[in-house]
Amino acid sequence: MKAELKGIHSPDADLTDSADVLSVDTLLVQLMIGPQDAPGEESFDIVVCTPERHARAGDARGPEPDEYTLVLDRIDLALIRRYIENFLRDLERPTWEELATEISRIGKWEFQDYRPHPGEVE
After folding, report:
1. Which of 27, 64, 76, 121 could crosslink 57 through cysteines, CB 3.0-4.6 Å?
2. What is the pTM of this model?
3. pLDDT, position 63
4. Would you say which domain of life the source belongs to (predicted)?
5. String of b and e for 67-85 (b: at least 16 CB within 10 Å)?
6. What are the DSSP calls for 58-88, one per residue?
7. Where are the domains of the chain?
């Protein structure tokens, strides 16, 4: 089974704007990824930031985690898309759960910490 990027969304910016380069130094991006050529998608969240913003991460607020962070010279939607599509290109696993677990190395999977309630049928 392979995965494909089905959409990109941000609660912090309008990514449908014609400008591919955004004038911010950090942005939460939700990647909608699902099985290739099949219905369905799940969210994988990453923080995209510039090197300058990344260097300031340990300022007065204290350190920020590097996990799920993509550092780019500029917040450029084409670069983000290319990075994710290149990551997914050669990734193949027998099941969606195994595939999603592998994708969660770069983005926080919406079901990553999910544990069924005792007695709940999976």
Report:
1. 64
2. 0.78
3. 44
4. Bacteria
5. ebbbeeeebbbebbeebbe
6. GSTT-----TTEEE-SSEEHHHHHHHHHHHH
7. 3-109
CA distance 88 to 105: 12
pLDDT at 21: 65
Q: What confidence tens digit (pLDDT) does each residue in 75-91 have?
A: 888 888 999 999 999 99
Residues 6+ apart with CB under 8 A from 118: none
Alpha-carbon separation of residue 62 from 14, 19, 54, 65, 118 (angstroms): 29, 33, 12, 10, 37
Q: Where on the phi/psi map is residue 119: left (φ > 0), alpha (ψ -120 to 50), or beta?
A: left
